Fold (2Fe-2S) ferredoxin domain-containing protein.
Amino acid sequence: MSTSRRLFVCTHQKSGVGEDVAKALKKELKHQGLKKQVVDGQKLRTQVQTCDCLDLCRNCKKGPGAALIAYPEGTVYGNVRPADAAELVTEHVGRGKVLKRLRVEG
């Protein structure tokens, strides 16, 4: 059986940071070999998807980053920048741990 994980990245910001974050996450998933993995005997595929609005602007207005929600966990991250992609993929996708410095209450 195969299951999916999705990382939804908001691209509503005028600066285009959301698109850059999505590209960086896709690159890191491939680089770290975590786009497709087997966890507890189940195939798990992680996809990065962009969306117009996650209604989380209050978490990103003061910083240069984008909002992101990881499903099915429902973990909300704010002010995510492209430079955060490697750590986010390693910790959240690879180790199943919430990256506390970027986590926000949704």
